[in-house]
UniProtKB/TrEMBL annotation:
UniProt family annotation: Belongs to the inositol monophosphatase superfamily.
Matching Pfam families: Inositol_P (PF00459)
Record GO biological process: inositol metabolic process; phosphatidylinositol phosphate biosynthetic process; signal transduction
Originating species: Sulfitobacter albidus
Catalytic EC class: hydrolase
EC id: 3.1.3.25
Record-given protein name: Inositol-1-monophosphatase
């Protein structure tokens, strides 16, 4: 599928950064004996990926704003457009030699996500979507799963770590949902979780504490694949609140009810 000029720029940037990350990933195993050494190596790999993405995207669209992890928004000359970028989503997986991580690039225009790319460089799976043009993985058109029964459905989420305050709420979510479904997975890369919902590999995904760069590209993938994306709180804002639920249309009411419980 041939995309717009913006989408082509995004994919080119993702592939270039992906090559850098794959090269670094091959060296991670040799550093496993030193936790501190591995952590520092991954930070450098993340920074190198961001540098490539920034150079590529800014070279092509220098007037757009910029938002990435650990940074405040950088305003561009064009106040209506900005890149929302995660140069390495799934950095803990990367550090441990687990090949489940990705690059996420979204283009926001006037507050709406209009294009998104999630690149799994380790598997060379390029997920991409543009508003009104559908969602794709490499040359394959994506559609969300057609499963209509919760008990047959598989879901993904993130589980908080290191004593985060939202852990009890997420465990309550899991306790409500687990008896109703075929399984819940926690693979540690929200961008790929959303891409997998778009590809029909999962029926749904939810998480309660994400950043805009974790989910912006994945949101448009799911929507353009025919899926359902909403904030967990019914009056919420996904990118501002960091809470999201995404699924196929057939189970949307049941899934949303199970996740929201008494919190909505």
């Amino acid at each position: 599928m041939n995309g717009s000029a913006n989408l082509n720029v995004m994919q080119k940037a993702a592939r270039k950064a992906g090559r850098s990350l794959v090269k670094d990933f091959r060296e991670v195993e040799s550093l496993q004996a030193s936790v501190r050494g591995a952590e520092e190596f991954v930070r450098k790999a993340d920074a190198a990926s961001e540098k490539i993405l920034r150079e590529e995207l800014r070279a092509a669209r220098g007037t757009y704003g910029w938002l990435t992890k650990g940074a405040t928004t950088e305003e561009g000359e064009d106040p209506t457009r900005r890149w929302i970028v995660d140069p390495l989503d799934g950095s803990t997986n990367f550090q441990h030699g687990l090949a489940h991580w990705g690059i996420s690039i979204a283009l926001e225009h006037k507050g709406q996500i209009v294009a998104g790319v999630v690149y799994d460089a380790a598997k060379d799976e390029m997920f991409f979507a543009e508003k009104g043009a559908g969602a794709w993985m490499n040359d394959t058109r994506l559609r969300v799963s057609g499963r209509a029964r919760m008990i047959e459905s598989m879901f993904a989420t993130g589980i908080p770590y290191a004593g985060r305050a939202d852990l009890p709420m997420v465990l309550q979510d899991i306790a409500r949902l687990a008896p109703t479904c075929a399984g819940i997975r926690r693979f540690g890369c929200a961008a790929l979780d959303l891409a997998y919902v778009a590809a029909g590999r999962y029926e749904g995904f939810w998480e309660r504490r994400l950043n805009a760069w974790d989910m912006a590209a994945g949101m448009i993938l799911v929507r353009e694949a025919g899926g359902f994306v909403e904030p967990i709180k019914t009056d919420g804002n996904i990118l501002e609140d960091g809470e999201i639920l995404a699924c196929n249309e057939a189970i949307s009411r049941s899934f949303a009810k199970a996740v929201r419980g008494k919190s909505a």
